[in-house]
Write a structure and sequence with these properties.
Elements lengths: L1 E6 L17 H12 L3 E5 L1 H8 L4 H12 L4 E5 L5 H14 L4 E5 L1 H5 L1 H7 L4 E3 L6 H11 L9 E5 L2 E4 L8 H4 L17 E4 L2 E2 L17 E2 L2 H15 L7 E4 L8 H14 L4 E5 L10 H8 L4 E9 L3 H6 L6 H13 L6 E7 L6 H18 L4 E5 L6 H4 L22 H7 L5 H16 L5 E2 L1
């Protein structure tokens, strides 16, 4: 069976340079798994799609789609919430061109809104949760035209009837150890700067605004296996990237300090010119293992330490269930400054949680600015909350937020004022203008906050 795997870029009106730096880990890993399954696999990369989208031409996009789906049996589309409207658009256009084709959707957004999607699009199959084991099973059922009811984590329809199978179980460490390398040989060469790698999955925490499905369900891969895998990916595919740069996509890379140190040591000893960006949590540098992580961060190949803070005051951190206090963050900042590592640090904040007032937002903005003022850093980001699938989304009506999942079907929901004010009912236009001016005023003082 011939399969097309793809994921869409966001709509061209919302596209940003930062979205162009890395390939999709999911589609290239699944492509490799399906190859081992014995299928003929083609990948349509977002970079290739983006070129047609930037021409602002529906015809150019449709011509591209026609070429890629001409002789395939199944199209698999991976989607998150940001690019969902484009995934939906592509699914409709594919079915207009080829009424006989089967489309499979997967990813965070289809997992969360599977029932809405199966009822409102021509898509026949939605995989909920992780697809590494489920997708080959589904391909077998499509080939044999039977057995769909036995596939865990599948939402599907037949003759107008919708069926929702029981959830699949999360992958275990032993499952990850059998995964092949991503099929980056199917990726366009010389267009991506950063190589994404994964050494764990899930998160130990459960932040209310976060979309990841495996909350409080973290599995760290064996350090030797993970570092050997990364080295193999670099050796085999590093030449296809424009820089020797790696990004650890893990939500909790530093949760196990000894494991993190071993992985970094193993990959940097084999790749001396490699630069590495990781995400860390302030709470990981508390206690007896902090010296291990400081030693790891001090390696010259570590060029970026990203920390999501979100709120600049303890009540907010507690309410979003961040598992962090301002005093713990202060400890991290002082520790990094003491060890001359503050220049590698990046901190992100969120304002506009549905229970927040103007004063709450200003507390976060003022605190974010104080970090720059005290430590001389320029990499601090303050963003307005975007509603994604999360606990906050589930509770939205409690806060007077009257929007439904079909809002994400709109290409321009990212930038639409109507959506923004519905998602932030505590703030009117004058309040938003006042808060944005407060951020801009810090720039006049030489304190630069990025407001996206």
């Amino acid at each position: 069976m011939k399969l097309l795997l793809t994921t869409m870029p966001v709509h061209y009106t919302c596209d940003m340079i930062s979205m162009h730096t890395m390939p999709s880990t999911a589609i290239y890993l699944l492509a490799s798994i399906l190859r081992e399954h014995g299928d003929d696999v083609v990948v349509l990369d977002p970079f290739t799609i983006r070129k047609s989208l930037h021409q602002n031409s529906e015809k150019a996009f449709l011509d591209l789609i026609k070429v890629y789906i001409n002789d395939v049996d199944v199209v698999c589309i991976s989607s998150n919430t940001q690019n969902w409207s484009m995934a939906r658009y592509a699914a409709f256009k594919i079915c207009e061109i080829r009424k006989d084709i089967d489309i499979i959707l997967g990813g965070i957004h289809p997992t969360y809104f599977h029932e809405h999607i199966i009822k409102t699009t021509p898509v026949k199959y939605v995989i909920r949760g992780e697809g590494e084991k489920v997708l080959p099973q589904l391909i077998n059922s499509i080939k044999n035209k039977c057995g769909f009811e036995k596939i865990p984590g599948l939402t599907w329809k037949l003759k107008g009837n919708v069926f929702i199978n029981p959830n699949s179980t999360s992958l275990l460490q032993c499952d990850f150890s059998t995964l092949p390398l991503p099929a980056y040989d199917l990726m366009p060469s010389g267009v991506y700067r950063t190589l994404p790698v994964e050494t764990s999955r899930g998160c130990k925490f459960g932040c209310k605004f976060c979309s990841i499905p495996r909350k409080k369900d973290w599995v760290g891969f064996d350090a030797i296996w993970a570092s050997d895998r990364i080295n193999s990916i670099i050796n085999r595919y590093g030449h296809m990237f424009t820089k020797t740069e790696v990004f650890m996509t893990d939500d909790c890379f530093t949760a196990d300090a000894n494991r993190a140190e071993q992985i970094i040591e193993n990959i940097t000893s084999c790749n001396h010119e490699l630069s590495i960006a990781i995400e860390t949590r302030a709470t990981d540098l508390q206690g007896s293992t902090k010296n291990i992580l400081i030693r790891t961060f001090a390696k010259r190949q570590i060029v970026r330490l990203a920390t999501g803070v979100e709120c600049g005051y303890d009540e907010g951190l507690n309410r979003i269930k961040k598992g962090l206090t301002i005093s713990q963050l202060e400890y991290l900042l002082d520790l990094l400054a003491k060890n001359n590592l503050i220049h590698k640090s990046y901190y992100s904040f969120i304002i506009g949680f549905p229970w927040e007032t103007i004063d709450d937002c200003l507390r976060t903005i003022d605190y974010a600015a104080s970090i720059i003022k005290r430590y001389g850093m320029g990499i601090v980001n303050v963003n307005w909350l975007r509603l994604f699938p999360s606990n906050i989304w589930d509770e939205r009506r409690n806060y007077g937020i009257v929007i439904d999942e079909n809002v994400f079907d709109d290409h321009l929901y990212h930038t639409g004022k109507d959506y923004f004010y519905k998602a932030h009912p505590n703030f009117d236009e004058s309040a938003i203008r006042f808060i944005n001016k407060k951020i801009e005023a810090y720039g006049d003082l030489g304190i630069y906050l990025q407001n996206a």
